[in-house]
Specification:
A hairpin with a 5-residue loop joins strand 1 and strand 2. Helix 2 runs antiparallel to helix 9, helix 8 runs antiparallel to helix 9 and helix 20 crosses helix 22. Helices cover about 55% and strands about 15% of the residues. By secondary structure, the protein is α+β, with helices and mostly antiparallel strands. The protein has a six-stranded antiparallel β-sheet, with helices on both faces. Strands 8-7-11-10-9 form a five-stranded antiparallel β-sheet, sandwiched between helices. It folds into four domains: about 280 residues, no CATH class; about 170 residues, Reverse transcriptase/Diguanylate cyclase domain (Alpha-Beta Plaits), CATH 3.30.70; about 80 residues; about 110 residues, Homeodomain-like (Arc Repressor Mutant, subunit A), CATH 1.10.10.60.
Length: about 775
């Protein structure tokens, strides 16, 4: 006893609350101590056990919910990025080596995703194709068959998103000590035939730290099991036998969640377990905290108080001091926990314990508010992802009630509310070449969406902005059904137009939908809004289209189609007259824009012209697939919203390739025609050869053949025949002893013409040439 007293006396310094409490104990604990001790012994222990158990269950539930929220946040983040256009179907055949800038963008996106949540350790992107590609997060070409097979199994099994404890590894790699915690999401996110996966590995130590928050005391253990009962992660408690026994007891119970007391080796544990609903799997958490370590100080204090009260006043003073020390121990433990000192010691500095606790409590409250604010910031991204899926029709299987419940989770009040869709389209991007580079459409759209969001916040309480990254922005406005908003929407449209004109220097086409009564009708109305946008004037100027005031005959007027210009364009292209064809296409576009000239009418006219040109190309014997490199020309043309860009596209993508292909074919035919003529001359030079006869042979006119022959060989037709015959005559004069008359006939000349032509070409007669050769 004296050693214990000495130990307590030599303990660290106590705060003012401790000494005040000790003084009160000395005055109040003597005779009443016996009564108090008995009451504490018989009644307090049970109450404390019950209160601690309830507090423990509440803490476990809150911290389990926190862990579930963290995991749900990871799942939502991955789902959001999987639907990002950057991970769309174009990655299947994308040349990552040639387009290194886009490859770097993918790597940066994976780095961004990897750093978006503290639980994420590594993000990998695998693309299954002829030459499999792995971003880790940097670009690699996979050649390890074991790795490729592992990733292919991830694509084949499970749903689009699921959890697993397997991670593909090279054949030579050693198995990990602990199974990884991996979240798999197939890409593209909206495809029924995925060709890749996003593999997210969680930090095991971070998950373990989250689990440790479920044990409110230093003692105890925490487990996280999958649906087969395998341990995903635990806090590595030394009590291996106890953890196995508790796990078996939990698995034996039929209830999905509950609480029970478990006793082992004289220690009673309060065990709580429950289920976390995960994608394609249910996880079970188990938390066990010792009850005996909590109630034993109370029992010991009660016994001491009874003994001290019976022994007398002097002994009561000593035991009162010991009791105060015992009563103070929970406060001391809490002080050590909140002090932030690694040694756990509390150093009083002109404040008592409860002032310190209040200060620490305020600090924790501020941290909690900070985390809540960060959560609210992420909520906007989740809202945008939900709204994008809604507008694209991916949520049509949900009922109106289910959609309203989901919307309420994102902080929107939609009861007795109606909806309006505002579609904003930016035009005039081609004139911004000095401010933006080619391919910066997403950057321009991002700036516009920020402007729209700021202006909308000034006029509406509930709205959401969707950035489509293609120079178009969507705005969904929610307003009470009994409040007219038409004038406010028109005023907002004017403000957006002025702001975009002033800041971005682009024109705006705004389309405002009619009133939408239910959430399930939003996707259909969005399709109608996009269709109504096509009735804008096909010019780079600001326009506002209100679907409630569209004329009933819009789109039904007969629009004149310039058939004569279409015929002239095709004729110019067939003749290879590039300048004339480009001039006529310009006239065609201008005539299509005359009159009403809405975007949809101009697009239909240009698409019709493209179809007629492709028909003429096929008639000329040229493959459109080869000429346009397999690209969908109609899809490309239908995406163009500006007349200048459309005209430039028609010239560079259609006219120029066809004329160049035509010229290349014409040059090849001319060369083949001359080669056939030369072959004929070499085979029949001893006969009577004429330009007319050769022209008839190759199927052209003498004038054309003469011109082509001179262009290809460098000499005219007569000179080439003469040089060939003289060369053959020289060979015969040197190598044979035939008569000159016979040699003349053999090379296609009569004797009298042969001597004259030979001397003109060589400078000597045939006889003199033979003599010189023999000498």
């Amino acid at each position: 006893m004296l050693k214990r007293v000495q130990k307590y006396a030599m303990a660290g310094k106590k705060g003012t609350f401790y000494w005040k409490s000790l003084i009160w104990f000395l005055f109040t604990t003597s005779i009443p101590g016996l009564i108090i001790g008995g009451c504490i012994y018989w009644f307090a222990v049970g109450s404390i056990e019950k209160g601690v158990s309830e507090l423990h269950q509440k803490q476990i539930a809150e911290r389990a919910q926190n862990i579930d929220d963290q995991m749900s946040s990871v799942e939502l983040d991955i789902s959001h990025w999987a639907f990002n256009p950057r991970f769309g179907s174009n990655l299947k055949d994308f040349n990552f080596v040639y387009y290194f800038k886009e490859t770097w963008d993918v790597t940066k996106t994976l780095f961004m995703l990897q750093g978006s949540h503290p639980l994420i350790e590594e993000v990998q992107l695998f693309i299954d194709r002829d030459k499999p590609v792995l971003f880790k997060p940097e670009y690699y070409e996979l050649k390890d068959n074991a790795l490729v097979s592992g990733f292919e199994r991830l694509i084949e099994e499970g749903r689009n998103i699921y959890w697993t404890n397997r991670l593909p590894a090279p054949a030579s790699a050693t198995p990990p000590v602990n199974a990884p915690i991996v979240l798999i999401h197939k890409i593209p996110g909206d495809s029924t035939a995925p060709f890749g996966v996003i593999v997210v590995s969680l930090k095991r130590d971070k998950v373990m730290n989250l689990l440790k928050t479920m044990t409110p005391y230093n003692e105890g253990l925490t487990l996280l099991l999958d649906k087969e009962g395998r341990v995903i992660v635990s806090d590595d408690s030394d009590e291996k036998a106890i953890s196995g026994a508790i796990k078996s007891e939990v698995m034996r119970r039929n209830e999905p969640a509950g609480t029970f007391l478990f006793t082992s080796d004289g220690v009673t544990y309060s065990v709580s377990y429950g289920t976390m609903k995960r994608i394609s799997s249910d996880w079970t958490y188990i938390s066990a905290a010792p009850m005996t370590s909590i109630t034993s100080p109370v029992v010991a204090v009660s016994n001491m108080i009874i003994t001290i009260s019976a022994s007398g006043v002097l002994l009561a003073l000593l035991l009162s001091w010991l009791a105060s020390r015992r009563v103070y121990s929970p406060v001391e433990r809490l002080m050590k926990r909140l002090s932030g000192d690694k040694t756990g010691a509390f150093h009083p500095q002109a404040v008592d314990e409860f002032q310190f606790l209040e200060r620490q409590w305020n600090h924790l409250t501020n941290e909690s508010l900070s985390l809540r604010n960060r959560l609210d910031e992420q909520r906007s991204h989740v809202r945008a992802g939900f709204l994008l899926q809604l507008l694209q029709g991916h949520l049509n299987s949900y009922s109106e009630h289910d959609l309203k419940e989901r919307v309420k989770l994102y902080g929107w009040n939609v009861d007795d509310h109606v909806f309006h869709i505002v579609h904003i389209q930016l035009t005039g991007y081609d004139v911004l070449t000095e401010r933006f580079a080619h391919g910066d459409e997403s950057l321009v759209t991002f700036a516009a969406s920020n402007i729209i969001e700021e202006l909308s916040a000034e006029r509406f309480e509930q709205f959401s902005v969707v950035n489509f990254h293609d120079l178009t922005v969507g705005l969904l406005v929610m307003s009470p059904s009994d409040t007219p908003v038409s004038e406010r929407l028109h005023a907002l449209g004017e403000e957006i137009t002025k702001a975009v004109n002033r800041i971005i220097k682009m024109q705006v086409t705004i389309t405002i939908s009619g009133k939408i009564g239910g959430i399930r009708h939003v996707p259909d109305m969005f399709i109608e809004v996009e269709r109504a946008t096509g009735y804008r004037k096909f010019v780079n100027q600001n326009q506002l289209i209100d679907m409630e005031h569209l004329p009933t005959d819009s789109g039904t007027d007969e629009i004149g189609y310039p058939f004569a210009l279409e015929r002239d364009v095709i004729h110019a292209m067939r003749n290879g007259n590039r300048e004339e064809a480009e001039r006529l296409i310009t006239l065609f576009l201008e005539e299509s824009r005359s009159g009403r000239g809405t975007e949809i009418h101009v697009q239909q006219s240009m698409l019709q012209l493209l179809g007629s040109i492709q028909h003429a190309i096929l008639q000329s014997g040229t493959s459109t697939r080869h000429l346009f490199h397999g690209e969908n020309m109609f899809a490309q043309l239908s995406q163009i919203r500006e007349p200048d860009k459309m005209l430039h596209w028609m010239k560079e993508k259609v006219v120029v390739p066809f004329i160049e292909e035509r010229d290349a074919k014409a040059n090849s035919q001319m060369k083949r025609m001359v080669e056939n003529t030369v072959d004929y001359i070499h085979a029949h030079y001893a006969e009577d050869i004429s330009l007319d006869g050769c022209a008839d042979l190759v199927g052209t006119s003498p004038y054309t053949l003469s011109k082509l022959f001179k262009q290809v060989t460098g000499v005219n037709f007569i000179d080439y025949v003469t040089e060939l015959r003289i060369a053959q005559a020289k060979k015969l004069l040197c190598e044979t002893d035939r008569k000159i008359n016979d040699i003349a006939l053999q090379v296609g000349y009569q004797q009298r013409y042969f001597n004259r032509i030979f001397k003109k070409q060589v400078g000597v007669t045939p006889g003199q040439y033979r003599e010189q050769a023999e000498a």
